[in-house]
TrEMBL record:
This is Antibiotic biosynthesis monooxygenase. GO terms for molecular function: monooxygenase activity. InterPro entries: ABM_dom (IPR007138), Dimeric_a/b-barrel (IPR011008). It comes from the Bacteria. Keywords: Monooxygenase, Oxidoreductase. It comes from Putridiphycobacter roseus. Residues 3-95 form the ABM domain.
């Protein structure tokens, strides 16, 4: 069964623009992972540094495999340093 992963990230104001630019450079790398059907970046309306990534996966196994790749190992530590608060993540499925 396919799944959707939603990750909420709050960035320090001075890093919000850097994250937006960085996302453009990594979007295709994430979308190209086995089992990934696509990834989008959403921004909370009226907030400078609150973003959500919305990615769709063939299965939770595919998502977990991605989380153990070199690509994820490079992306996550980079963006984590820019956080203003701990990220929140949800894995959901359509009913």
């Amino acid at each position: 069964m396919s799944i959707t992963r939603i990750v909420k990230m709050s960035f320090k104001p001075e890093h919000a623009a850097a994250f937006e630019a960085y996302f453009l450079t990594i979007k295709s790398k994430v979308a190209g992972q086995p089992g990934c059907r696509g990834v989008k970046l959403l921004k909370e309306k009226g907030e400078t540094g609150v973003f959500f990534t919305y990615s769709q996966w063939d299965s939770e196994v595919d998502l977990n495999n991605y989380r153990h790749t070199e690509t994820f190992g490079q992306i996550w530590p980079t963006v984590k340093n820019w956080f203003a608060d701990k990220a929140g993540a949800w894995t959901v499925e359509e009913m």
